[in-house]
Every structure is written in structure tokens, then in C-alpha cells.
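Support request, please re-run this one:
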Amino acid sequence: MTQPSGARDRGSPRRRWLSYEREQTLSQLLLATLPLLLFWVLTMRQTGIVVGQEADTRTRQAAGSVASILARDASDLQTLLDSYTAWSVLQADVAADNETGISSTVTDFQVAQGHVDAAVLLIGSHVIAAGDPAVTARVAAFLRQEVTTRPAATPVPAYADLGTGLYLVAAGTIDLAGRTGPGVALAATHPAAMAFARRIDARFALQVRQLANIDVAVYDRHGRPLVQSDRVLAQQLGTPDVAGLPAGETVVQHPAPDLVDAITALTGPDGQVIGAVAVMSELSAVGILGNDLRLFLVATLALTLALALLLALYLSRRLRQRLQPVGDGITAVSRGDLAIRLPAGDRDPLERLAGSHNRLAAALERRERLVWQSVDALDNLRPDRAPEALAADVVAAARAVFGLDGCRLVTPDGHVQAFDPASVVDAPPDGASVARARIWGQPDAPVLECSSPEVAGWSTADHALFELFARQAGVVVRDAGLFAETSRRAVRLGRVNELQRDFLRGVSHNLQSPLTRVLVMSDDLADQPAANVAERARAIHANADRLAHVVEQLLTLSRLDAGAYEPEADIFALPPLVRRVWDAQGTDRSLDLVDRSVGALAVADRAGVEQVLWVLLDNALRYAPAGPIHVEVALQPRASSSGHPDAAAGHTFVVRVRDEGLGVPATDRTRIFERFQRGANAADQEGTGLGLNVARRLLRAMGGRIWYEDAPGGGAIFAFTIPAELAVEPA
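Re-run finished. Output below.
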């Protein structure tokens, strides 16, 4: 046999006549047969007569023990039933006719008392049972006959043939004295009764075997076996004549030369024989020998065991000598020394075990090499490369590490995401051995697909190692995606920072301009004649008022962002508020106010509506340098759930502010309501890009909305709604 390169051989195997299998077989044969052979030759001839006599006596005694065990089981079952029928919880449920509670209680009790096979409760004509339906139906019939038809009798445990075997059945009534309820009425003609059934099965046979140290079999009325502790002995017994057995007596028989049995009939409640219990014993001299023979038997047994022990020690020493190299090899593998090899062959299991060890060591050595190569290849994969290049690196690394002919990365829809140019083939040929593994766990993950003739010889561990490599490569691919996403987020963050800087510059300019004008005009006011004081004071007031509105916008924005804004439910007339906000603008241009409110009142936050009006009027004045500003206040029914106006659902104000300026380009009509966004026509105007955003959020909080409309003939219309209510019904 050719040894692998670098392997250390512990010597070539020598041919032996006494192989491991022969040694093992011989040792087992000697240890099993030699003591029995000597024991038979030296003792059986001298104890044959004693065996027969003692067997009959002990079998009769065992039959009495079995009868005692059955009587004790019956007493235990009746005691268990008596304690349960007196349980106050069950009595209360029966009296209240709580069928759900009774069923749960009966089932729970049967589960808790695992040796109870069936439980049946009768309440009048109602039956609540737990256990096998075929058994519980027969227990219910037994219960009706033995208790409900003869309530004056005192039920005792009895044997019953319930179709699926012989059962010990205990029955009793439930005392409902002093109870009231529908359950008492149901049990008026027939008393509430309870029955437990326990099958005479393997548990009984095991109990007899443990207590009496004897084998037992149970038969039905036709002589068919139901329970057998020893099938061989029961077959020797044959089919007993159960129907011909006298009730209450034990019959001793010798159905076979080496077998004695005592069979006892089991009777039902009506006194008829329904089955039998047979106690079986082999004619063995063990344990029944006289005192005059025991010393001789002990000496003979000691001599036999001594000879067997010496021979076993010799053979075991030979076995240990052959097992020692195998143990040393396994120990070496456990320490990580995979180069060790053992002498192997096919003559016996030890030589085949040595061959298996050598193959295992070679496979572990190969997989250890693959693991380290996989680690090195994965370390060389860079997540900062482009996804296409990284996918190609993964494919090339898989082909190089596992020594495959062709590798590629395929998406679930069949698209080839990456292909190694150094591969022998670009796709697995028909019938080729292919290894496939998803690079992560989701169904939409790409599949690493490699082909090579060597794949057909891969073990489960090789496939697992290939899947592990694919999963780890998938981690790198995902890291690359996260790296790219982080880069994109960094770009977006820079854009946000730039917007914030623009906002701060705009806010600084909008705050600084009014302050500068106030300071300059205040200085000029001291040097101007009295005739110009009023004009300068009005200019100071206008700029201070603008500064106050900018600050108010910033405060409102911070409250909205923090979720701390709670609109008030003020009730006020809307047209006077529009006039007051217009007067606060301090302009000499005209206002065209059309009032169609028909006396209705607004129900909203007055301060919030005032901010919205100030923003819209201020924008109209700044972006329309000439012409009047038109404001229309109209009342209309609020839309119902179907989307159509419905007066029964309430009313709302619709306010439209129109100017005669250039209007808003179509591309900006949605964007201008976002924070820090201004229209293309606002480049030469002062502003922060916050006014319309604050107005929209304020109106949403008050139950309204704001939008842009095209003005006929040019200009811009900004419209908004707020809730309203009628002070008086319109004529």
C-alpha cells in the first residue's frame, strides 16, 4: 500500500491467524458458554428431582402474589375514585352543570394520574369522557348498568372485557346533597356517577416481574393472549381453555417438559369468566437448591469464573496491544498532527478502522489547507472596490482556492453577474458536477456556481466549506454595498450641511438687515428735524415688525419639529384679521378684500392663522412689485367621506391670496412648500425658504391645507382652508 507523502508509518501489518474478529468471537463464546457448560455438567444431574417439586410450590405462591397484586390495584383504584368523587370542585361543577369545567377537570385529572386509562362522568343523560373513545363508550355503558340502574348498591371494582382488553373498572356516585343548580336537576332521576378504568397491560406484567420475580400472561375469554412478559414461555403454554376454568380457583399445569404454570380465572360483575391470568415458571434449579448442594455449587461456579477470567484477561491483553496504535493515532489527530498514518488492510475491523483513520486524517489535512487558503483569499477581497470588480474577485478566489475548472456568479433570474476569465469553461456543461451556494441567505442572493469533475467526489464537509466560503464572500460583497451607501450618504450629508449653511446665511441676512436698518434709522433720527421723525419712526417700526415675524417663524418651526405645537381652538371673524395683518405690512399699496364669509366665524388658532396670512401677504408684496393684492374669503361646505361637499358635515373657509407678479414656474409649485426651498423667481429677493413650509405645517395642525393655483391673466394664487362654523344660518 502506497503511503502518502510526509506520512509516518507505524509498521506494516503482519498476517495473523487469530484476527481481531476471531479473537472477539472466541472470547465472547468462551465467556458465554464455558460457565454454563460446567454448571450444567456438575450440578443439573444432581438437582433434577428437587426442581420439579419446588417449581410447583413456588408457582402456586406466585399465583397468590399475583392475586394480591390485582386486589391491591383494585383497592388503590377505588380509593383514588372515592377521593375524587368527594372533591368539592367537581361536585360544584356538576351541580352547576358546568360541562366545560367538568371536561377540563376530568381530562386534567386523567393526565395527572397517568395510570388511569379512561375516565367517564355521567350527569343524568350527559356523558363526559376522557381517553380512547372505544374504551370510554364501554366504560359509560358499564357505569349506567352498575351504578345508575342500581343506585342503592355499593359499587366495587370489577373486571370488564371492554373490547380492547381486560380492564379493572372502579365506579362511584357523586354526592350532591346540599347543592343546587341545573346539574342537580339533571341527576334527579339518575345519580351523577364517576368511573375510572385501568387496563391490565404491560405495566401490570412489569409490576409482577419486579415484585414476584416471575413471568405472567393475561388471556381473554377466548384464550387469546393480551399481555405477555415472556413471549417464548407464553408460546410454550399454548392456548389455554379459559372458558372451562372454575371461577375463583388456581389450576397448576405442565404444558411443556421445562415449564410449569398456574392459571387463575378472572370473572366480571355477573360472575362469568371473562379472562385468565397465567403465572409461568421454567424448571430451573437456581435459587431452590438445598443447603447440602449450595457449597458445592458455589465452589464450582468460582472455579468456572476463575478460568473464564484468566482466559478473558489474556485475550483482552492481546486486543489492547492491537488497539494501542489506533488510540495513539486518534490522539495525534486530536492534537492537530494530521500527518500520522496507521497500518491498514481489509482482513478485520481493526485494519479497516486504521484505513478509515488514514482517510480521515488526509481529508482533515486537505480541509485545513482549504480553510487557510480561504482565509487568505477573503482577506485579499477589498470592499472599497467597485461591485463589478469585487464580484469578479470573488469568482476568481473561489476557483483558485478549490481548484475548480470554471466559476461564475449568477443572479436568481439567470443573469451572469461575474465570470472568471481564467476559467476553462464559461458555463457548466450538461451533466457536469456543479457546486452551488448563495452568497447570503435570502432567495434574491446571487449564486456562486463552480464546476469541475472533482466536485462529484466532494463530501458533505467539502460542500459545507464551499458554502461557508460563499457566505463569507457575501459578507464582503455586502460590506462593499454598505461602503458605497456610506459614500452616498456622506455626499448627501455634505449637501444637507450646505443647505444648513445657506439657511444660516439667509436667516442671518434676514435678521441682520432689519436690525441694521433699525440702527441706522435710529442714528439718523437723532440728527433729523422734527418733520422727518414720524416717517423714520414708521420705518423703524416696520423693520422691527419684520424682525419679530422672522423670529416668530423660527420659534414656530422649532415647536413643530419638537412636536410641542398644540393649536388653540379660537373663534374669530376672519376678514378683520386679514385687514389687520395687511395693515401690519406698512405698505401704501392697495388691498382688494372680497368677503363672502356670510357672517361665519373661523375655528382655529388665531396666532397660527395670523402667521399664515403674514407669510402669504408678505410674499405677494415682495414678488409682485406693482399692482394691488387680492384676497378672497369664501365659505363652502366641508367635504364628506365620499369626497363631495356636504353641508351636514360642517363648513370651511377658503382663503385665496392673489398677486399680479410673475407667478411660480410649474417645476417649483410643489418644491416651494419644502423647507429651505425657494422658487426660481426668488433669487433676487430676501427670504429663508421657511415661510410656506411653516404655513403648510401650521394649517395641517389646525385641520386645513394650502396649495398653489394659476391666476387668470398672470400672477400667483396661494389658497388655504381652515375650519369654520356659522354664526347665523345664511338666508
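The domain at 204-282 is CATH 3.30.450.20 (Beta-Lactamase). DSSP finds 16 helices and 21 strands in the chain.
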